[in-house]
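Example record for the data management plan.
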Amino acid sequence: HPYNWTVIGDLEDLQAATLDDVREFYNQFYMPANATLVIAGDIDIAQTKEKVAKWFGEIRSGEPSPALEPQPVSLEADKKLYHLDNFAKLPLLRLTYPTVEQYTDDAYALDALARLLSDGKNAVLYKTLVEELKLAPRPSAWSDTNEIAGSFAINVQANADVPLDKVYAGIQQALDDFAENGFTDAQLQRIKAEQETAFYYNIESILDKALQLGIYNEYAGSPGFIEQDIANIQAVTREDIMRVFNQYVYNQPAIVASFVPKEQPDLVLTGSGKAPVEEEEIVAGSEPEFEEKPVEYTKTPTEHDRSEPPLTELPTLTTPDIWHQSMDNGVKVIGITSNELPVVNFSLTIDGGQWLDPKGKAGTAALMAQLLNEGTANKTPQELEQAIGQLGAQLSISADRESIELSGRVLAKHYPALMELAAEMLLSPRWDENEFERLKSASLTRIKRDEGNAARIASNVFAHLLYGDNHVAGQPMGGTQASVESITLADVKAYYEKVMSPKQATLHVVGALSPEEAVAAAAPVKQWQGEAVALPAQPEVSPVDKPVVYFVDVPDAKQSVIYVGKPVLPASAPDFFAIDFANERLGGGMSARLGQTLRIQKGYTYGAYSYLPAAQYQVPFIAASQVRTNVTLESLQIFKNLIGQYQPTYLEEDLATAKNMVIKANSRRFETLDSQLNMLEEISRLGLEDNYIATQQEFVQNASLKDIHQVIKQHLNEQQMIYLVVGDAETQLERIKGLGYGEPVELDIYGEPVNPI
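Corresponding structural encoding:
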């Protein structure tokens, strides 16, 4: 079956492929006869057609590939397989059922079924596995339909030490419940409302529109299918959903896969056989060397000059008009009116977040934010979720290191009703002890799961090394096992009383509303009262005097996670954008030096980047990648050389390219409501001027090579950076001494020395 292998291919297949194989595939399939070209934007249709005919008309059309017929698969009985995972910290069970191809009536019904089974607190999988049996924090289900076949999956990552026999039995109990009791009309109505809203957001940007039209033309036969698609979503009935449930899922055979920690084979589902998983052997020096040779291309005969044209005149930056309002209780309101789509995005941010967590209780803000989502004084969690869903809306409260955020999106006509619910969530907490304990348990489960995630380990340890214990950024977001275990419901209530004040808050609104309409709809928030709370100053962080290499052992890891960096400035500092712009050609995208060298030239990784996260406190410059284990040292040397030699090798052509990329990207920067909302949030969070984007663009236009060299010298000095590797110590620890920065310092997964002095 064509879906028997992954799109990217197995390692054995990739190693066996030849250049002739690639050419043959290209010549057979990458031809105009098999292509759909979509051009979307501010264009002249007639002129565009002429240009398409001119530039594409000379290309050999090739032979069209015959349309693929559906190739559904079937199972005679369950196939139960297991894998003992060296890196997993929690057991996971997945059931996968064969279904049908996309855009069929059954495909739409299966999508609705997946949402009914797992989305929300009224979903039967949630009620059974989370609330009743307490086996898992968040089960999920989804339908994946493609061109010639499809599948339906139920996925449950269980709590620590839970046998998958119990999870499997719990899933069957939930499915029995659904078969007997089905679902309510209100649940189906909620799902359809959410799908309608999501449909609009899926075609929000120009790129989204172009992509979706191309998909419809290729797989549904016409770009005009866009109208039929939403009609098909809305046409799904109760009978359709129960029919596909019984036909494809209930008491039907499935692939049942168990993934458990290697040291806990007793958790595997009874009756499972070992899955044929091949693990790559780590062999130092086995990476092939790539020799760059000139390539002779067979070019299409042409009457036109196909040499690369000069860059066009850079576009003029046009930023949306921003309006400001305020409420009597101190809430600041900032917004943008955009009428292209009948929708509204908004966020209410309250300064504080983990920054104001009590000492030793990191994770308090995060738990409080989660608990505010779990119903109100007047609504159960299920009733609140249903009320939000009936509006086809999204509404939730979350926390980060700097703030609490209530965010949502909704059709503009329902914005006033959603703000009523938002105010109720914010001002009338339920403070349910059982929900608090469930959320606390889920947080501890997430922390345990992250202990097996090398990327998460690297992120947390790198921050700990840079900031230490006494800085908000030095603690993992959401806390540690010890800090979360110490948090009580009383701690959460105390945080709420201290921090949740309108004088800390800013409401950001973007969409099809006037300023007056936006503020009037937020009237329920006006009753909110409280006093301002100052954010304590964070300690200043200094870079190291000379590079230091740290190593965290993840035994038998097939990849090494590499972080390189140093502290720089707060995002509100005048020079912050200059550093960000100077980084553009180093690691700002896959066309920059890190990506081009580590991925394109060497093939060591899928991606390599460098960046500066934005925050009110002092942020780091970070260069990072995940590379194959046997080229860890070689990759470190590339990081060292590219960063260390960045200033002397940064030339006028680098500056011209960076200017072109940044300025042209700005022309589409405010295309979506989310991008406009992000701009407003940066203005309020960092204290920026409304025209800060224009100020940044002016810097870009006027920046000289000397300016960029000075920024690199002052802020991106490789000799002030630390190196962190998270990988297999047995094969790599000794090797990376070859980087030339002394003996690596060994740390545990929490960033503490393995051999303390």
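Summary line stored alongside the record: DSSP finds 28 helices and 18 strands in the chain.
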